Each structure stands twice: as structure tokens, then as C-alpha cells.
Amino acid sequence: MTVWWLLLALSSLSFSAGFPKSNKYDGYKLYEVSGKARSGAFAETFSELVKNAYYYQLFSDYKGGSSAKLMVHPDEQINFVKLMEENNVDYDILNRNVGLTLSRQFETNRMLRESVPYNGRLGTERYYTHDEINQYLEDLAKSYPRLVFLKTVGKSYEGRWLKTITITNGDARRNKNVILVDGGFHAREWISPAAAIHLINELVENLEDNADLLLDFDWVILPVVNPDGYEYTQLSADTRLWRKTRKPSSADCIGTDPNRNFDFHWNEEGASEDPCDNTYAGAKAFSEPEALVVSDLIHSYVDRGQMYLTLHSYGSLILYPWGWTAAVPDTEEDLHEVAAEGQKAIQEATGTIYKIGPSTTTINYAAAGASDDYAFNAGFPISFTMELPFGGEGFDPPASDIDHLVKETWVGIAAMARKVIQKYPLVQK
Ligand code: 0X9
Ligand code: ZN
């Protein structure tokens, strides 16, 4: 009995003594393999190999010759390395123990929540919960009643409120053009809601510097499209890498990829019919209430909407349609011109190099049923997915990287918005 209690006491002490709790990613390694893994004779074997979801998690579903990041189960690492070496595929180990990184980050986030409590502002010190984000939107609307309008636009499967914030310059002019931005489609991509929050801060609290961005344009922002997934990833290191929504999709599996659930070429290339897959398209188009909310927003603003921007991670990419096919739209030049402004501004500001281009050939895979193609097809002349940079040594940036990443993202968004404003001025009807 005494020994039992001692063991119990020691195990609960283990974290504070500097031994992070174990989790299901303990011993997993994160590798980056060169493009050779996916070109030439080895390509077929490699893509068969990584289909084994028990041993492999591919963080980018790229095909063709570009490099890939993938996480490998401890029991498979010897075999994996042997295969790479036999086939002359170069590889780097980006992280020697993903579980340890996730546990440490989990603990850091817990401590930061205590040391940086919500105080009416959301800074860049840490990641915030969905409740805090909604509370912040409420508080902003109270502080800036002439500039900011809050709207509840729907409810997630688990009952969380989805709220948009409309930011204006307070001149009370109606029917301005619109820029529609969302974040948090994919649960684990925490830097995306963080970037949306920073964008809101800049537009509301830095109105003087950004007056041109609000003269003839209103901004409508939904910072967390998939709050159930986002909250789930905050529960523990074990759930940190969740991507989908949280509605059960079969007897055994939960969640749909909200970015495969839109009713435009739904369930075609790059979407899975397996409810257990990370890219499951859903039982039908718009089976997910969260995707339906975004589609309603797209339709309600399309008459005035000049740019739709959806924030994801990772890859340092600005992607434009199409993402369901390798074909490109007739207006590719316009899309490219706007994306190039963002790319240039970011490179000048921080040196980060974003790649820009049509989605399918730039990210190297087609993914049908996504929101960017849907918005473009509905009539937004400019529609982008912005993939923010890869984070630290794990999937997403540690809290200490939030500040520079969201500021850099803002520079890119502001530059693209300025180009949009110039190209698509308000036509008074
Ligand atoms: O696959 C996705 O949904 C996006 N990448 S992510 O790593 N954040 O999951 C890219 C979507 C690009 N757009 C289309 N394929 N339409
Ligand atoms: Zn994503």
C-alpha cells in the first residue's frame, strides 16, 4: 500500500520534476525526405508505404518531386531509414521526439494561460481558447461600437457559437466592397486564428495607419471556423494533431475535413471517402454545419466581395484557384498580381520567402471541395489560401514564434488588400 502511494505521488510529481508526461507521440520522429522519394522508381513504393496510417503520418499530401515531411512510429524507424538509404533518398530528422515537443508545448501553453490571463486584449504572447476569442470579439464591439459589428452566424456541431466581426471605419456608409477572411478551418493549425486575431487588432486599433484599407472596404472576419476541433487540440498532447471537425462520421471514426466538404467538385480528387481519413469529404457536401456557415458568408457577401482569404498552415504559400484541378482560371494574371504583392511585402519585411501560384501545381496536389475554389466560383474575383510557415520543430510554431509570424502575415495581407483596392475600386450604384 505504502509503495503504491509513493509511486502515485512520484508519477504526479514527474512533470514538475522536469519529466514531461508521456503521450501517444513519444518516440515518434519527424523526417523530411527529399523529392526523390516521390519521383522515379521509388515513388510508388513510397506512396504505398506511407498509406500505413499506423506507422506514418504524412504532413503534406504532396505528389511528384517536392520534399515531404512525415512522422514515423518508433517501431518503424529502422525499416524506414533502411528503405531511404537503399533507395538513395536523402532525409533529415526535423524532430527526434515529437511527443516530447508536444508535451513541452502543452505545458508551456498551460503556464502561459496562467501567467497571461485574458484582460480584454489578445496579444501575441500565447494561443487563446475559442471562448477567449469570442469574448474578445464581444469586448471589441463594446469598446468600438461605431467601428465594429458582431454577428452570430451559426453554431458548431458541439454547440459553439460562430461569430463574425465586421470592421468598418465608422463613417456609416453602407454597401462598401468587402474583404472576407477566415481562419481555423483545420483544428491543429493554431497559428491561423492567431493571425486572424492580429489582423483584427491592426484594423481596429491601428485605424490611422490603415485608413486606406477601410475607406471603401469593410472587412468581415471569422477567426475560428472549426472551434470544436480547435478546442479538442487544446485538451492534451495526444489530441494536439487533430485536423477535422468533431461530428462522428461513422461508428468508429470522428470528423470530416471541413476543407473537403464544400459543394464544388465535392468528393473528387484529393478527398477521401473513408470516414477515418484526415481528408474525409463528409457523407455529403455541406454535411458539416461549420462549412455551411462559411458558404452562407460567401453567398451573402459575394455581390460586394472582392477578396476571400482563408488562413491555414503550413507551407509559406499563397495559393489561388484552382485547387480541384491543375487547370488555371482565365483571370490567373489578376490572381497572380495580387499574390505577388503579398509575397514581395513579406520578403522585404522579414526575408521569408512565400511561394505563390495556382493551388494544385504549387502545393503539388489537387484537393477538391475546398472553400477557396468555392468562393472563387461563387464570384469573388480574388480568392486565396494562405499557408503560413512551418513551425519550429513540430507541426505548429511554439508560442514564442506567434509574434513575428502574425506580424509578417499582416504585412502580406495588407499589401494584397491594397492591390485589391486599387484593382477593384468601389463602383457606386
Ligand atoms: O489541403 C488543404 O486543405 C490545404 N492545406 S492544409 O495543409 N492547410 O490542409 C490546402 C488547400 C488548397 N486549396 C485547394 N486545394 N482548393
Ligand atoms: Zn489547413
Give me some keywords for this one:
8-stranded mixed sheet, 4-stranded antiparallel sheet, 16% strand, binds N~2~-sulfamoyl-L-arginine, Aminopeptidase, 429 residues, 2 domains, Alpha-Beta Plaits, 13 helices, binds zinc ion, alpha/beta
How would you characterize the overall build of this protein?
The chain has 429 residues and is α/β, with parallel strands linked by helices. It folds into two domains: 22-96, Metallocarboxypeptidase-like (Alpha-Beta Plaits, 2-Layer Sandwich); 122-423, Aminopeptidase (3-Layer(aba) Sandwich), CATH 3.40.630. The chain contains 13 helices and twelve strands. It has helices at 2-13, 43-49, 77-86, 98-115, 130-143, 191-205, 211-214, 227-232, 289-301, 332-350, 359-362, 371-378, 402-423, and strands spanning 29-33, 56-58, 68-72, 91-95, 148-155, 161-167, 177-182, 217-222, 305-313, 317-320, 355-358, 382-388. The strands form two sheets. An eight-stranded mixed beta sheet has the order 5-6-8-7-9-12-10-11, sandwiched between helices. A four-stranded antiparallel beta sheet has the order 2-3-1-4, covered by helices on one side. Helix 6 packs across helix 13 (402-423). The protein is globular. The N and C termini lie far apart (82 Å). Residues 6-17 have low confidence and may be disordered. The chain binds N~2~-sulfamoyl-L-arginine (0X9) and zinc ion. N~2~-sulfamoyl-L-arginine (0X9) binds next to helix 12 and strand 12.
